[in-house]
Specification:
Elements lengths: L11 E8 L4 H9 L12 E9 L4 H8 L3 E10 L4 E3 L3 E8 L2 E8 L3 E3 L5 H8 L6 H7 L3 E14 L5 E13 L10 E4 L3 E8 L3 H9 L5 E2 L3 H9 L2
Antiparallel strand pairs: 1-6, 1-11, 1-12, 2-3, 2-8, 3-5, 4-7, 5-6, 8-9, 9-10, 9-11
């Protein structure tokens, strides 16, 4: 199927840093003062995700267990969280050890409100604008988690390195029959800085990492959300 084609996207490194006991303005300033001269190619914005998994939570279990080859499936859109989600995108993230790639395709618009359910999700999958191969791929997936955060974007002028800064993480459990979004978790204290670059830049990346006063860590917003609102 096209959505899982090995030719869909190039692999890259995604190095993550958890930042504690600092204010967002301080982290922002550290990135802007980095000797790599990061600039902001896009304005900051809110990102919303619905994570999908199999009924037995295969993707979650593989991530926690550290399986080398694993997947993450989500629906992403920007702007307001609740209400009508316009121009969402279906994203499949494929990990192979320390590197990963992302395959994306348009997803039908939908409403995220108290009527959102597995039955409603199945109805969305039958929308004519969604290609049959994508609908087929998702037929055995269920929505399990909503995630929202605010993101700044940074990049070097030569395009070799990109950095994102995510703050104000929120998670909502949506596995229930009726979603009233009361059971959720917010993390307003820790921030996530992520450095992204191609495989051919791994040697040069050490110089970029060494100028960050943060420690590299393994972090998954999906796992963190599931641990806090589902288990």
């Amino acid at each position: 199927m096209k959505i899982i084609s090995n030719e869909a996207a190039a692999f890259r490194y995604e190095r993550k840093f958890i930042v504690e006991q600092m204010e967002p303005a301080q982290v922002y300033a550290l990135i802007k003062l980095h000797p790599a001269f990061f600039y902001e190619p896009y304005p900051p914005r809110y990102i919303n995700n619905i994570y999908l998994d199999t009924p037995d939570m295969k993707y979650y279990e593989e991530n926690v267990s550290g399986v080398k080859d694993r997947r993450k499936v989500r629906i992403r859109w920007y702007g307001e969280l609740f209400g009508h989600a316009q121009k969402p995108t279906l994203e499949l993230k494929i990990k192979d050890g320390l590197v990963g790639r992302k395959v994306s395709c348009p997803f039908p618009a939908f409403d995220l409100d108290k009527s959102f359910s597995f039955k409603y999700f199945q109805k969305i999958l039958k929308t004519p604008s969604l290609k049959p191969e994508y609908s087929y791929f998702l037929r055995d997936h269920i929505p399990v988690l909503v995630n929202r955060y605010y993101r700044w974007y940074f990049a070097t002028v030569d395009g070799r390195f990109r950095v994102t800064l995510d703050i104000n993480m929120s998670y909502y459990n949506i596995r229930s029959l009726h979603n009233i979004f009361l059971y959720h978790f917010e993390n307003r204290h820790n921030f996530i800085v992520e450095l992204k670059y191609g495989i051919d830049q791994d040697t040069s990346a050490a110089q970029v990492v060494n100028h960050f006063p943060f420690s590299l860590t393994k972090n998954s917003k999906y796992v963190q959300g599931i641990d806090n609102v589902l288990y």
